[in-house]
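User: Show me sequence and structure for the first protein, then do the same for the second.

Assistant: Starting with the first protein.
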Amino acid sequence: MKKLLLFIFLFSGLCSHAQFGTNVFGKDPIINMENFDKQRVHWGYYLGFNSYDFKFDYKTNPTADIVAKTVTGFNVGLVGNLRLFEFLDLRFEPGLYYTQRNLTFNDPTLIRESEYLREVKSTYIHFPLLLKFSAKRTGNIKPYLLAGVSRSWNLDSNEKVKDDNMTGQRFRMKTWTNNYELGVGIDLYFEYFKFSPSIRGVFGLDDELIRDNSAASPYTSNIDAMKTRAVFINFTFH
């Protein structure tokens, strides 16, 4: 994730440097797309990266007995922006999110890799509804904050599958989950488009785990709740 953040700043810096010759981000910049944000509604799209994780709460053992390793995933989606007031917008950003989490279970009864390791691959259709709080535009730069709620549809949840970790090596999750989201970003105005890199944290509100059929399962018996935690880095173009 540090590398991804570095990429954002480098990319923004390169874009800025490329247009310094036309005085876009200089002391007295040429104002690009001056009336763009005055539109009642405008549209865009985004590409980006994600890092999904789980937050586990345990029933008896305060020491985590499940180790989650995140794998960087990929995002793509659309943006619909509704201008409410001068510094406040309502945004709908539906998107497709591919991700994977590798879970290692440290129960001593699990010996082979096929027993203690579960690769949890997920494809989410994500529906966030966000409020965008913008600062005053300075030249061709405008920072902003994001806050809102979202609902996620996990196409690979295995919720209706009867086999579990004990019988079919199937890690099962609920199909629908609810979240709240917080983030920051910056609008950069160029001659023909607006580029907006942003980073956002996603915090699951629901217990997503489907327990194994056996109450003594070494995989799920000690889990009181399992909730999603994620970081999104999106590059939006309007």
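Switching to the second protein now.
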Amino acid sequence: MLKTRHVLFTLVATAALAACGAPSDQPSDDATSAAAPAEAAADPYAESEKRMDDAMTAAVGTDVGDNWARKMIAHHQGAIDMSQVVLKLDPSPDVAEMARMTIDKQGKEIEAIRKLLKDGVPDQKAAELYRPVMTDMHQKMMAASGADSSETFLRKMLEHHKGAVAMSDVALRNGVSGAVRTRVQATRADQVKEVAMVEAMLRGETMDHSAEPAAKASVASPAPAPKPTPVAAPVAKPTKAAKVAPKATVAPAPAAQPSPSATASCSPEHHAMGHC
């Protein structure tokens, strides 16, 4: 009898627990879905950052250079997405200008890099060369925050640019060559300038426009025309002296001979003394 009562008590208790639902320490689907908007509100760039990291990880090229190109396209697209986010958050004037410049510049660089992509068998081993610096960049970007959306954007973009420099260093150390190497070097130099610009903006300085693309600057300020090279006047060659015709020799006038009349009238004495 006691055993029967014990069994009935166990069945009733089990039914009661089932009616109460899942244990309180297990989050429900509703709680999980509510956490996503809360995270987005705390970090409005989180979705763009995760999408960029996923795209960079999935991008696999045929060699070291092709991997850099494909991953850098995803990297630049991430900057465009984040810039579009900050423009909706009433940023400071300098940050708004930087965001618009980033959208324009990174879009052009994506098109330039697309022209360098290769067809072939994906090289996962070459892709793995970039994983450490990509992971480091992603973690630092996700952790970066500021006093407002503008400062947070700057701090995240600072790590974003540093990541591009690190990725370019990986490519250069591992023998990337040809047109891709030229593009890697140009991208690295540009990202170094942007790192310096963002650091200055975080110190409270105004945006440095020298970080804008060199091509754009050359259109705005065309190079001065080269000065004409002065042409030296031709040096006259010495001419041979013209032969001078010899002067006509003038024969000396013959001594005057005494006229016959004068001789006839001269007396012998005078003639002997030379007077006539």
